[in-house]
Structures are given as structure tokens and as C-alpha cells.
Design goal:
By secondary structure, the protein is an all-alpha fold. 78% of the residues lie in helices and 0% in strands. Helix 1 packs antiparallel against helix 3.
Length: 88
């Protein structure tokens, strides 16, 4: 079940706010890590950087970033539902 399928009886305002805070914290952490990786990549020479981007770990990182875009859309839906709860 996703947030759009829940009704207001299944998700009270305080739990919704807590969930949003937790999710936002995780997203902020992921963004900080991404920024750190960019900074660190500038310290690597071109050959090392190329080798790094050919690893399975790098591919997994890129896949996680793509999935995060879907998560952001879900969070927007969640936020909309939270606003509806606050207005009830």
C-alpha cells in the first residue's frame, strides 16, 4: 500500500509528520553524500576516476540515484496527503 491509497484514519497527523521528517533526513543525507562524492572525484586523476566508474558499486550508486527520483515524486504525494490531513 502506498500513501495515496491510505485514508486519514490509517495515518494520523503526528505519525505522518514523523515519517516525513525521517524521510527528509534520509534524503538530505543522501544528497550530502552525493556532494561529497563529487568533491572527492575532483581529487582523483582521470584514470582512477574512469576505473571507478566502471565498477559494480558505481553502477549501483547510479541506480540508487535514479530510484531516488521516484522516491522524490512519492514524497511529493505524501506531502500532499499530509496537507490534507492537517486541513481536516
Amino acid at each position: 500500500m502506498n500513501i495515496a491509497q491510505m485514508n486519514t484514519n490509517e495515518l494520523d497527523e503526528s505519525n505522518a509528520k514523523l515519517a516525513y521528517t525521517i524521510i527528509q533526513s534520509l534524503l538530505d543525507s543522501h544528497e550530502a553524500l552525493s556532494d561529497l562524492l563529487v568533491l572527492m572525484s575532483h581529487a582523483l586523476d582521470e584514470d582512477v576516476l574512469k576505473a571507478l566508474t566502471l565498477t559494480n558499486e558505481w553502477q549501483a550508486y547510479l541506480e540508487a540515484k535514479r530510484n531516488l527520483e521516484t522516491t522524490r515524486a512519492q514524497i511529493e504525494k505524501f506531502t500532499d496527503e499530509l496537507r490534507k490531513i492537517e486541513n481536516v
